[in-house]
From TrEMBL:
Name of the gene this protein is made from: hutH
Protein name from the UniProt record: Histidine ammonia-lyase
Keywords: Cytoplasm, Histidine metabolism, Lyase
GO biological process: L-histidine catabolic process to glutamate and formamide; L-histidine catabolic process to glutamate and formate
PROSITE patterns the UniProt entry points to: PAL_HISTIDASE (PS00488)
Cross-link (5-imidazolinone (Ala-Gly)): 141-143
Record's GO cellular component terms: cytoplasm
Enzyme Commission number: 4.3.1.3
Length: 508
């Protein structure tokens, strides 16, 4: 059970809730904070004070005062009018993350919502009722208004949800799990949608996938090293300590561990003096990606515990301040950076694929074909990798450098952070397929060299890989193989491969 209180949620906690179906609860202390901030909102309404979002219009209409009897209709109208998302829905895992992060933010006690509203969010998580949220339509300030409005629709019994693998009207799922809709009261609609939880949810899922993919890319590159009889000296720790980047040092160390005991790797001067950059510079290039991942992780771990709606309530209601914490610029920049960094993993992977299949660059059968000439082997797999790499380059154009004014120019600078996060997620999916192609080619090249000569760890990966994709003994439609390996990389349990308990136990 993960306990939420708005301040200490970690990416590891999020991972358990998203992928291990861990249940959630709120801390006693957080409920006390929620109660105090809610009382402040009710005082504003009862005393007739003018406070943005509680008894005023929104955006450019913030100067319009709303009568006390209309505050509930104000919140309902807000949710319905702002539910303008379009396009395909976010993956269900992202929708689940959005609900988790929204609940955690509201539990900080700065938002003025009732306990009942947050309890509904927690029930959605624990019962696995996930809102259907269209991917497109957010500017990333005033937060993710359109996506989060679709989340809020579910709380009032409208919209659609995913439940037990089926997309259905919200009330159908509510009837199954025994939930009833909630009537939004003062400020609650605004508190639900004025935040960065859509872009941050995509960012968290993308980061977790990117972290796993980066490790898998090193494992794959190690097999490529064996298939091409690469030079191990380039991973000597003295080289990497001499430069000083810890992430580079770590990549080199992991590469040495993968290749420990291999009879296929070579020493400088044994076959050639130096390898091409795509082999020799693996620690430098992959290490730079890890630097970016660390940066992105630090920003996400702040944002998943951030109060990002407006206005915020402090000092038991003595201070209610309008600000701009909903602005997604920190996450927008981080997501652009993440997309660029992962795209580089694909770039260098595709160059290793070329070295594996090009007979002018190696001494292997042309295109790893069993019958070169009669059969094309892996020739067109490299084409697919090149296409994905090229697509990544267009997706890596930073979204955060763009801004379009909205709400009659009241909201005159926006982050486009959700676009950045969506592009990063697509880049990760593309890169996974590129690395899957490298894995297929590397397995085949090492097989030509002799599996018995591989390192113990890479032999283990080889055996696991051959359960997913067969050897290339003749031409076949390789599309299914690529997708099968990519799915194995995304959903398979790689812990024993990527994180062995000990050197003695890793091959049991």
């Amino acid at each position: 059970m993960i306990t939420l209180e708005g301040h200490s949620l970690t990416l590891e906690d999020v991972k358990h809730v998203l992928y291990d179906q861990e249940k959630v609860q709120a801390s006693k202390e957080s409920w006390e904070c929620v109660s105090k901030s809610r009382q402040a909102v009710e005082n504003v309404v009862n005393e007739g004070k003018t406070v943005y979002g509680i008894n005023t219009g929104f955006g450019k209409m913030s100067d319009v005062l709303i009568e006390k009897g209309d505050v509930e209709e104000l919140q309902l109208n807000l949710i319905r009018s702002h539910a303008c998302g379009v396009g395909e829905p976010f993956p269900e895992i992202v929708s689940r993350a959005m609900v988790l992060l929204r609940a955690n933010a509201l539990l900080k006690g700065y938002s003025g919502v009732r306990k009942q509203l947050i309890e509904k969010l927690l029930v959605l998580l624990n019962e696995h009722v996930h809102p259907v949220v269209p991917q497109q339509g957010s500017l990333g300030a005033s937060g993710d208004l359109a996506p989060l409005s679709h989340l809020a629709l579910v709380l009032i019994g409208e919209g659609e949800v995913f439940y037990k693998g089926e997309r259905m009207p919200t009330m159908k799922a509510f009837g199954t799990v025994g939930l009833t809709p909630i009537t939004l009261t003062a400020k609650e609609g605004l508190a639900l949608i004025n935040g960065t939880q859509a872009m941050t949810a995509v960012g968290v899922v993308s980061y977790l996938e990117a972290e796993k993919l980066a490790l898998q890319t090193e494992a794959t590159a190690s097999i490529t090293m064996e298939g091409l009889r690469g030079i191990i000296d380039a991973f000597d720790e003295d080289i990497h300590f001499a430069r000083g980047y810890p992430e580079q040092v770590d990549v080199a160390e992991r590469m040495r561990r993968y290749l420990d005991g291999s009879n296929l790797i070579t020493r400088q001067g044994e076959i050639r003096v130096q390898d091409a950059y795509s082999l020799r510079c693996i620690p430098q290039v992959h290490g730079a990606t890890w630097q970016t991942l660390n940066y992105v992780k630090s920003k996400l771990e702040i944002e998943i515990n951030a109060a990002t709606d407006n206005p915020l309530i402090f000092e038991g209601g003595q201070k209610i301040i309008s600000g701009g914490n909903f602005h997604g610029q920190p996450i927008a920049l981080a997501m652009d950076f993440l997309g660029i960094a992962v795209a580089e993993l694909a770039n260098i992977s595709e160059r290793r694929i070329e070295r594996l299949v090009n007979p002018q660059l190696n001494d292997l059968p042309a295109f790893l074909s069993a019958k070169p000439g009669l059969e094309s082997g892996a020739m067109i797999m490299q084409y697919s990798a090149a296409s994905l790499v090229s697509e990544n380059k267009t997706l890596a154009h930073p979204a955060s450098v763009d801004s379009i004014p909205s709400s009659a120019n009241q909201e005159d600078h926006v982050s486009m952070g959700t676009i950045a996060a969506r592009h990063a997620m697509q880049i990760i999916a593309n890169t996974r397929r590129v690395v899957a192609i490298e894995m297929i080619c590397a397995l085949q090249a090492s097989e030509f060299r002799g599996v018995q000569h591989m390192a113990p760890r890479t032999q283990r990966i080889y055996r696991k890989g051959r359960e997913v994709v067969q050897s290339i003994t003749k031409d076949r439609a390789f599309s299914k193989d690529i997708e099968s390996v990519a799915l194995w990389m995304k959903q398979g349990n790689w812990d024993s491969i990527l994180h062995p308990v000990s050197k003695e136990k890793q091959f049991i």
